[in-house]
Write a structure and sequence with these properties.
459 residues, mainly alpha, two-stranded antiparallel sheet, 18 helices, 1% strand, binds calcium ion, Nucleobindin, golgi apparatus, repeat, membrane, DNA-binding
C-alpha cells in the first residue's frame, strides 16, 4: 500500500543495471513511488521508471490528477486506509470536467495499446485466423476496468492503485527469481565451456576459474548491514566523523537525505555502498556487478526485516533508535555474501538445464520447419520460373513466325508443287486427292497449260 503512496518520488536507484554479461536485460528499478507525495517540495528527485508494463499510463494518470488542486490536496492527505477503502478513488467524482476528459483519453489510448499488444502477440503465435474476443483478452490486465473501455472511472483509479501496489511489492521476489536464473545460466555456460575442452586444456581452465573465484573471495570482512559496526564505518569513513562520537540520532538525520523524516529504501541502500565496495569492483572482471546488486537488495531486505517493525517499507527515527537498542545491533558477526550462499540447488540447476534444452530443441525444430518451408517455396518458385521461361519462349517463337513471310509450299519429291488441302465442304478427302507419288499414267488426261487444273483436282 505504502508503495503506491510513495509513487513517483524516488531517486533512480539501479546504478549498475544494464545489459548483463549474458545478454539479459535487467529488470528496471522497482521504485517505490509515492502517490501522495508526488508534488511535495520535499521530493526533489526526478520521477523514475517503475518497470511496470503500464508505467507510462500510471505516470500520465498521476500527472493529470496532479493538475487538479482538490485531488492533489486529497492525495497528499490520504492514508493507507483511504486508499485501501477506495475513499481516495471516489474523490475522482469531484475533479473538473476537462481533467476527466483527459483521463478518458488516457484510458482509451491504454486500451488501444493493450489491443495492439494482444494483436502482436497473436501474430507472433500465428493465430491471426482465430476469432478474437477482445473483452475476454483484456480481462487479463488488472490495471484498468475492461468492461468500460471508453471512460476513466473511480474503479479504474482503484484498480490502477491496487495493481501497482501489488506489482511493486512483488518486485523484490521477481528480482530474486531473475537473479537465480541468471546464476544458473552462468553455471550452465561455465560447465558447457569446460565440457568443450579436453584433457590438459580443461584442467588449465578449471584452475584459472578457481583462481578467479579465490581472488574474488579475498576481501575485507563485510559487516552485517544495520549493525553498529556497519553504521560506524559509514559514520567514520563516509561522513568523516569521529568514531568516539557516534550518535544514532545524528546518523539518522544525516542519512535522511531528502529530509522527510524517514529512511526509505534508496536511503538505506546508499548506506551499503561502503560494504559492497569491499567485495565488488566494477573495474575488476572477477567481480560480477549483477551479484553486487543482488547483494544490495539482500542487505536492504535484512535491515527492513529487523528495523521496519510496522512493515511500511520506511524506517522512522523511532524504529531506527529501537533497533540500536537490540543486542543484535552490537554483535559484530560477519555477513555472508551472495557467493557464500548458493542461490540454487543442484536439482534446480538440473531442472533449469532440462528446460533450457527443451526450449532449444523447440527453437531448432521451429528453425528446421522454417528451413523446410523456405526450401519448398524456393522449389515452387523455381518451377514457376521454368514455366515462365517456357511461355516466354513460345511467345517469342510465335512472334518470329508472324514476322516471317509466308514460306513457299514445299515441293514434292518429284518437284511438283503441293497444295494444302482445303478445308470446308466439297474439299476432297485424302482418297480423292491426287497422290504426290502418282505415276504419270494416273495423271489427268487433260494437258496442263490449256486448262489450268481445278483446285479440287490438285493436292
Ligand atoms: Ca528520507
Ligand atoms: Ca516503518
Amino acid at each position: 500500500m505504502v508503495l503506491v503512496k510513495r509513487f513517483l518520488c524516488a531517486k533512480h536507484r539501479s546504478k549498475h543495471w544494464g545489459k548483463s554479461r549474458l545478454g539479459w536485460t535487467q529488470p528496471p528499478g522497482p521504485g517505490p513511488f509515492p502517490l501522495n507525495r508526488v508534488a511535495s517540495p520535499s521530493c526533489p528527485h526526478r520521477r523514475q521508471d517503475t518497470g511496470l508494463y503500464y508505467h507510462r499510463y500510471l505516470q500520465e494518470v498521476i500527472n493529470v490528477l496532479e493538475t487538479d488542486g482538490h485531488f492533489k490536496e486529497k492525495l497528499q492527505a490520504a492514508n493507507a486506509e483511504d486508499i485501501k477503502s477506495g475513499k481516495l478513488s471516489r474523490e475522482l467524482d469531484f475533479v473538473s470536467h476537462h481533467i476527466r476528459t483527459k483521463l478518458d483519453e488516457l484510458k482509451r489510448q491504454e486500451v488501444s495499446r493493450l489491443r495492439m499488444l494482444l494483436k502482436a502477440k497473436m501474430d507472433a503465435m500465428q493465430e491471426q485466423e482465430v476469432q478474437v474476443d477482445h473483452l475476454s483478452l483484456l480481462k487479463q490486465f488488472d490495471h484498468l476496468d475492461p468492461q468500460n473501455q471508453h471512460t476513466f472511472e473511480a474503479r479504474d483509479l482503484e484498480l490502477l492503485i491496487q495493481t501497482a501496489t501489488r506489482d511493486l511489492a512483488q518486485y523484490d521476489a521477481a528480482h530474486h527469481a531473475e537473479f537465480k536464473r541468471y546464476e544458473m545460466l552462468k553455471e550452465h555456460e561455465r560447465r558447457q565451456y569446460l565440457d568443450s575442452l579436453d584433457g590438459e586444456r580443461r584442467r588449465e581452465e578449471e584452475r584459472r576459474l578457481q583462481e578467479q573465484q579465490k581472488r574474488h573471495r579475498q576481501h575485507p570482512r563485510v559487516n552485517v548491514p544495520g549493525s553498529r559496526a556497519q553504521l560506524q564505518e559509514v559514520w567514520e569513513e563516509t561522513d568523516g566523523l569521529d568514531p568516539a562520537e557516534f550518535n544514532p540520532k545524528t546518523f539518522f538525520r544525516l542519512h535522511d537525505t531528502n529530509g522527510d523524516g524517514v529512511l526509505d529504501e534508496q536511503e538505506l541502500e546508499a548506506l551499503f555502498t561502503k560494504e559492497l565496495e569491499k567485495v565488488y569492483d566494477p573495474k575488476n572482471e572477477d567481480d560480477d556487478m549483477r551479484e553486487m546488486e543482488e547483494e544490495r537488495l539482500r542487505m536492504r531486505e535484512h535491515v527492513m526485516k529487523n528495523v521496519d517493525t510496522n512493515h511500511d517499507r520506511l524506517v522512522t527515527l523511532d524504529e531506527f533508535l529501537s533497533s540500536t537498542q537490540r543486542k543484535e545491533f552490537a554483535e559484530a558477526g560477519g555477513w555472508e555474501t551472495v557467493e557464500e550462499q548458493p542461490v540454487y540447488t543442484e536439482e534446480e540447476l538440473v531442472r533449469f538445464e532440462a528446460e533450457l534444452a527443451a526450449r532449444e530443441a523447440e527453437l531448432s525444430e521451429r528453425a528446421a520447419q522454417l528451413g523446410r518451408e523456405h526450401e519448398a517455396l524456393e522449389r515452387s518458385q523455381g518451377q514457376l520460373e521454368a514455366k515462365k521461361q517456357e511461355l516466354k519462349q513460345a511467345v517469342l517463337q510465335m512472334e518470329q513466325r508472324k514476322q516471317q513471310p509466308p514460306a513457299p509450299p514445299a515441293p514434292g519429291p518429284e518437284g511438283q508443287l503441293l497444295f494444302q488441302p482445303q478445308a470446308g465442304a466439297g474439299a476432297p478427302g485424302p482418297r480423292d486427292a491426287l497422290p504426290a507419288s502418282a505415276t504419270p499414267d494416273q495423271k489427268p488426261t487433260q494437258p496442263p497449260g490449256d486448262h489450268p487444273p481445278q483446285p479440287d483436282q490438285l493436292q
